[in-house]
Design a protein that fits this description.
Blueprint lengths: L6 E2 L4 E4 L11 E7 L5 E12 L13 E4 L16 E6 L7 E7 L7 E10 L8 E5 L22 E4 L4
Parallel strand pairs: 1-3, 9-10
Antiparallel strand pairs: 2-8, 3-7, 4-6, 4-8, 5-7
Organism: Meganyctiphanes norvegica (Northern krill)
Pfam family, one: CUB_animal
Keywords: Disulfide bond
């Protein structure tokens, strides 16, 4: 598991907030990096817990921001994820290592996060531009921060594998 300032080259690494599993409530910049071996084209982020300050009414993340260097499918994320929410990052041809940055303000909010990072080999990658990819026959799909304001700066596809 990684926390602020940590670096890993291990598959299935967890990014943890400061004081995990407890919350924190202060201004902070927390950066973690994942170094990828050759042959990795995507990183899958499985959001186990993600609670940052909510966006404003226009969807702007003004208090807290989660960013990934070089990511084009979202500018930043804040707020909360639905249960078991995932996202694929297209990292082929991107700078290595990949930097994950959590910037929080002094606004009073009980923050915490835990995100599993899986390395997807190029031979097993999903179609590029699919932020989310589903293989199940049925289920519910929720946007990031479902139940509150939709985030500004999101531009990704939700894709489905065709049944045989």
């Amino acid at each position: 598991a990684l926390s602020c300032g940590g670096t890993s080259s291990m598959n299935n690494t967890y990014l943890h907030s400061p004081n995990w599993p407890d919350t924190y409530n202060y201004a902070n910049t927390c950066t973690m990096t994942i170094s990828r071996p050759d042959g990795v084209c995507q990183l899958r982020m499985d959001f186990k817990t993600f609670d940052l300050a909510q966006p404003g009414t226009t969807g702007q993340c003004t208090d807290d921001q989660f960013t990934v260097t070089g990511e084009r499918q979202f500018t930043y994320l804040c707020g909360q994820t639905p249960a078991n929410w995932h996202f694929y990052l297209d990292v082929n041809m991107q700078a290595n290592p990949t930097e994950f940055k959590f910037t929080t303000s002094a606004t009073s909010f009980n923050r915490r996060f835990r995100i599993k990072i899986s390395m997807i080999p190029c031979s097993q990658e999903i179609p590029s531009g699919c932020g989310q990819y589903f293989k199940e026959n049925t289920g519910m799909i929720h946007s990031f921060n479902y139940g509150s304001y939709y985030l500004a700066g999101l531009n990704y596809g939700i894709c489905f594998r065709k049944n045989k």
